[in-house]
Recover the amino acids of this structure.
């Protein structure tokens, strides 16, 4: 299975600032997925990132708040923009799916103060 | 409307005994179900899955049972080991969903399993 390197692993940010999270995969993949896990809650899909096209966002998530880049088949970034304390979560990238198990990155624990 | 529910937030069992984690779903279009295990400070790790055409899938100490009529699945771990202590997530997907969302999974809230030595 693929190996994903995600960074940063954690960060504490001031409200109103932005943070970019990076995921590097050790093999080429068509789709990458970005999830959020708020404290005590399940993983919620933010968007699906395809190389060469705009990301597809789930209900409740918008590109202005969570811009995503997918410049090639092994790399993607998620930016959390204009942060507020409500954005404090664990953010995870993943690959796979299509009826098989995802491989997840180790996650980015974000705290907004 | 939460489509995948894990009603037990926590479960504690003795080492060597059976652990049974439960999951219910509401969307009848789900046709593929997965269990993930998550340790602190790590991403979830895929554990085992089952297709809706089956009612049981076994992999070593882990067995997943699916009851489609009840929209219920369970994960059995036997014998349980202290290293199994983790958060377990149930997930469900509709593999026939449109190409844009192919492979999208809906997750439950997780059950924290503690296996006592």
């Amino acid at each position: 299975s693929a190996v994903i390197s995600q960074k940063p692993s954690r960060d504490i940010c001031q409200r109103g600032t932005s943070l970019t999270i990076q995921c590097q995969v050790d093999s080429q993949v068509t789709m990458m997925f970005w999830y959020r896990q708020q404290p005590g809650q399940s993983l919620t899909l933010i968007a699906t990132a395809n190389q060469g096209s705009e990301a597809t966002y789930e209900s409740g998530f918008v590109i202005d708040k969570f811009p995503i880049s997918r410049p090639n088949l092994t790399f993607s970034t998620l930016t959390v923009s204009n942060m507020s304390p409500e954005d404090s979560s664990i953010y995870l990238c993943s690959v796979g799916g299509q009826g098989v198990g995802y491989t997840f990155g180790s996650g980015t624990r974000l705290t907004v103060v | 409307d939460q489509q995948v529910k894990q009603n037990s937030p926590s479960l504690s069992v003795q080492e060597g005994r059976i652990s049974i984690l439960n999951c219910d779903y509401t969307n009848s279009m789900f046709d593929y179900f997965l269990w993930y295990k998550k340790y602190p400070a790590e991403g979830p790790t895929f554990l085992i899955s089952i297709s809706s055409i089956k009612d049981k899938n076994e992999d070593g100490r882990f067995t997943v049972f699916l009851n489609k009529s009840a929209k219920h699945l369970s994960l059995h771990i036997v014998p349980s080991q202290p290293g199994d202590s983790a958060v377990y997530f149930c997930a469900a997907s509709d593999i026939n969903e449109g190409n844009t969302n192919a492979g999208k999974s809906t997750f439950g809230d997780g059950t924290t399993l503690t296996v006592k030595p």
Summary: The interface with chain A takes residues 4, 32, 34, 36, 41-47, 49, 51, 89, 91, 93, 95, 100-110 of chain B (CB under 8 Å). Chain B is about 0% helix and 50% strand. Chain B has a mean pLDDT of 91.
